[in-house]
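Q: My labmate handed me this sequence with no annotations at all. I'd like to see what the chain might look like in three dimensions before we decide whether it's worth expressing. Could you predict it?
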Amino acid sequence: MKTLSITIAFVAVMVGVSCSDSETGTITTAQQNEQDAQRLSLVSTTLAQTDLRLYYNENVFRINLTRLSRQSTASVLASGAPISKIFTVAELSYPQPYYLVLDSNNNGAPYVYCMVYLIKFEDGYPPHQFYSMAAIDAAINSGEIIVENTERLHKCLFL
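A: Here is what I predict for the chain of 159 residues:
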């Protein structure tokens, strides 16, 4: 029992546990690190765009993404349909080490059109999960990341 408590204390110090009130339901840093590690261990090397996860205001949604052709993209843009933004740390053709982040709510619609933006971390900043647009905006303003428009439009279907 003594070894277990020493091990737990050591692990807590190593991951930088932040304290929170368990009654409020606040996620601690240790819990977020655990969730991130679980997600990374479940990433398949053959992950397709048919069962991705994304965050919108710290809530997780399952989605399918379909890349639109140039002709379809031109039609959607010409129609004036609302275009959301999806943020990712890896090209969508690769396995996603982190969940995507959506900038706006789908307002109950079964799908939205999304332009894909690639997040690039500046030197000295380790890649990590973003949970909301506010966190991405703060990282942009602090110089932690830059965001690049891939100019690829996708149809994002909510499952």
